[in-house]
Amino acid sequence: MNTRVNTDTNTAPKSTATVSIAYCTQCRWLLRAAWMAQELLITFEDELTEVSLRPATGGMFEVRLNDRLLWSRKAEGRFPELREIKQRIRDEIDPERTLGHSDRPVNPAPTS
């Protein structure tokens, strides 16, 4: 098993962006917040220096980038789609970047 730790301190992150996700503990939204944090770390592995989970109450689910509110469940009336959060973060830290399938338009539901 390889247990080497990268100790190269000369490698600076491309960005100093941080994300915090505040989630309601009473509503049991930890798994939703943790999943979103994982997905953001995978997508923005070189751009984000930190993703934190912040326990809250009162039905709160908020996503912040560098302390600026990106999404509030209470204000929007729903949870964010992951693609919405990824697009908002991308628009702030690297607007020229493509997100692949997350940038494709959502197909509208067929009308009958």
Q: Class of the domain at 17-94, according to the CATH hierarchy?
A: Alpha Beta
Question: What's the end-to-end separation, in Å?
Answer: 58 Å
- The second-level CATH architecture of the domain at 17-94 is 3-Layer(aba) Sandwich
Strand order of the largest sheet: 2-1-3-4
Shape: globular
CATH superfamily of the domain at 17-94: Glutaredoxin
Number of strands: 4
> Would you give the CATH topology of the domain at 17-94?
Glutaredoxin
Q: Structural class, from helix and strand content?
A: alpha+beta
Portion of residues within helices: 25-40%
**C-alpha Rg (nearest Å):** 16 Å
Beta-strand content bin: 15-25%
Largest sheet: number of strands, sense, barrel closure: 4 strands, mixed
SSE succession: EHEEEHH
Average pLDDT number:
86
Which ranges are low-confidence, i.e. pLDDT below 50, for 5 or more consecutive residues? none
In DSSP terms (H or I, runs of 4 or more residues), the helix count works out at 3
